[in-house]
């Protein structure tokens, strides 16, 4: 395994410390024993969903004020965000595709992954619902109904977290998303693009609830299959994680600032902002970092066995 | 839109003026710096190629003309590779900065300004240059006389370069990252990338307003350049 063990453990330790500092919260600017970060710039690569919903600004403004730093947020798809981080062009990534995050960490580019928040995916479509999937509680059945009726389905096709999820769902339904047919339309665009396109074409698409809600006023699309937030199946869960870029691989990244950001965003302040952020009275994201029973597996790839290096 | 409904429309203007001002500022800063640098580099090239007779002149001219239509996203990609931390200029930390955007706009505007200026310079009568030489002018004097004669064409060249730079979206999105701070000030967000963002979110009205602002800006810059170009009251 390419991860240098001591650096990894040290990074995990300081991550836990920064997380703890975030938890203890209020006196973070009163003492001088932390690394000096004021005046510096954090480059955050993230997904379009966090920017398009407006959450990112709400989270970043108090952080910038408190520490006197700047956060440069570059919104890309999950795949592109992780690639930018692999190239050392960002300091921290906030994404939602656990399998890609795990790969990123296993390849030693990321350290200190933490669960951040979740929302869920929903299958939306035009009110006519040509495949009659409305109210379905079984994702496989719904996708198969869309496939059998050959109703137009919009795929992001951009290697984003949502696209990755959608491909996994087609797999689970026993269909290969590469050979679905002409009704399966790959647009290579962001979530908003996909929703607009689905609206124009009267098509179905997989959306995260947050982006769908924030655009609800601009489309006629309706939710046909609910995710777990509204009692739908667990397979539509959409968990977000945040990962610092490993300073042992890219020594120029601003690791201290990245960890301060992770500490803040997974601490009570950041989690409160996430909890209280609403669009038209609807909560878009659900905080997940503060748990009574911490899940230590979140720091490392799923199924990772650190025993024998 | 009927007149009576336009007042509430303006009142519920869908964005902050500080935000608008800062993206306009970034757009203008990046494009104007890039076009100025391109002009400084283009004019000597246009004069040299325009006056000199050498083997391969036609080839060089057609290479410049091809560059005028070079795909901007490719330029964006190449600049991204250059300025990324893995690239040759990685140590300068230019990725996702206005400077990286200036680099890509420079590369886009340079062939346009060179190509159009070259045509303008080539159109200046040989007799004008001969006269300037005959009066004892240095090479610099001759160049200045030629630029003065060709100023309308050169102004057109600069405007064409500016138009390409400010209305370009692909490369600035790739190398700039469309960054705006949480306080609503833009770092690398330009009018075009803001339009792209608004359209992505389905806020077509905001996108249209930004589009109108962009058109007005381009018209304004055109008017200013035309005004500057007509210091003797008109064109020949």
From TrEMBL, chain A:
Domain of life: Archaea
Family matches, as PANTHER family: EXTRACELLULAR TUNGSTATE BINDING PROTEIN
InterPro entries recorded: ABC-Tungstate_binding, PBP_domain
Gene3D superfamilies assigned to the protein according to its UniProt record, in alphabetical order: Periplasmic binding protein-like II
Protein name per UniProt: Molybdenum transporter
Entry-linked Pfam families: PBP_like_2 (PF12849)
Domain (PBP) ranges: 38-267
TrEMBL record, chain B:
Residues that span the membrane, as ranges: 26-51, 63-82, 102-121, 207-226
GO cellular component, one term: plasma membrane
UniProt xrefs under Gene3D superfamilies: MetI-like
Residue ranges constituting the ABC transmembrane type-1 domain according to the UniProt record: 24-225
Cell location: Cell membrane; Membrane
Keywords noted in UniProt: Membrane, Transmembrane, Transmembrane helix, Transport
Entries under Pfam families matching the protein: BPD_transp_1
Claim: Transport is one of the keywords in the record: yes
Chief localization: membrane
GO biological process: transmembrane transport
Protein name, per record: ABC transporter permease subunit
Organism: Natronorubrum aibiense
């Amino acid at each position: 395994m390419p991860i240098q063990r001591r650096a990894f453990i040290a990074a995990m330790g300081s991550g836990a410390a920064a997380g703890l500092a975030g938890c203890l919260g209020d006196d973070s600017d009163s003492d001088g024993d932390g690394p000096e970060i004021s005046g510096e710039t954090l480059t955050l690569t993230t997904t379009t969903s966090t920017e398009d919903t407006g959450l990112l600004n709400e989270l970043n403004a108090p952080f910038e004020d408190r520490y006197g730093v700047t956060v440069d947020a570059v919104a890309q798809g999950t795949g592109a965000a992780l690639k930018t981080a692999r190239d050392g062009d960002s300091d921290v990534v906030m994404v939602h595709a656990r399998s890609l995050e795990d790969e990123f960490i296993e390849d030693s580019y990321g350290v200190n992954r933490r669960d951040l928040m979740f929302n869920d995916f929903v299958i939306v479509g035009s009110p006519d619902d040509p495949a009659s999937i409305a109210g379905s509680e079984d994702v496989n059945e719904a996708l198969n109904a869309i496939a059998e009726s050959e109703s137009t389905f919009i795929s992001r096709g951009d290697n984003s977290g949502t696209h990755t999820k959608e491909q996994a769902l087609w797999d689970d339904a026993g269909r290969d998303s590469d050979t679905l047919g002409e009704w399966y339309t790959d647009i290579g665009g962001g979530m908003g693009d996909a929703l607009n396109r689905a609206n124009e074409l009267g098509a179905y698409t997989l959306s995260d609830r947050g982006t769908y809600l924030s655009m609800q006023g601009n489309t006629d699309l309706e939710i046909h299959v609910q995710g777990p937030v509204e009692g739908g199946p667990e397979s539509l869960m959409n968990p977000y994680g945040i990962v610092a870029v490993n300073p042992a691989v890219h020594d120029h990244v601003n690791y201290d600032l990245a960890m301060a950001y992770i500490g803040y965003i997974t601490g009570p302040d950041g989690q409160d902002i996430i909890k209280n952020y609403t669009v038209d009275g609807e909560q878009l994201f659900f905080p997940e970092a503060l748990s009574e029973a911490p899940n230590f597996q979140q720091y490392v790839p799923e199924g990772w066995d650190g025993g024998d290096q | 839109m009927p007149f009576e409904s336009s007042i509430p429309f303006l009142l519920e203007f869908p964005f902050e003026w500080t935000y608008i001002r800062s993206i306009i500022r970034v757009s203008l800063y990046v494009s104007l710096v890039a076009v100025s640098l391109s002009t400084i580099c283009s004019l000597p090239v246009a004069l040299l190629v325009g006056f000199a007779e050498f083997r391969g002149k036609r080839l060089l001219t057609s290479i410049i003309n091809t560059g005028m239509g070079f795909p901007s996203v490719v330029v964006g990609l190449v600049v991204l590779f250059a300025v990324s931390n893995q690239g040759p200029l990685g140590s300068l930390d230019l990725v996702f900065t206005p400077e990286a955007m200036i680099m890509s706009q420079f590369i886009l505007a340079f062939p346009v300004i060179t190509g159009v200026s070259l045509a303008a310079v080539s159109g200046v009568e040989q007799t004008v240059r001969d006269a300037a030489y005959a009066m004892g002018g240095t090479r610099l004097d001759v160049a200045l006389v030629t630029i003065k004669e060709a100023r309308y064409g050169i102004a057109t060249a600069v405007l064409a370069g500016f138009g390409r730079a400010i209305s370009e979206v692909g490369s600035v999105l790739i190398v700039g990252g469309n960054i705006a701070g949480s306080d609503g000030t833009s770092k690398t967000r330009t009018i075009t990338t803001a339009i792209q963002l608004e359209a992505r979110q389905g806020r077509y009205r905001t996108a249209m307003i930004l589009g109108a602002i962009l058109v007005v800006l381009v018209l304004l810059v055109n008017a200013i350049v035309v005004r500057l170009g007509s210091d003797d009251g008109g064109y020949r």
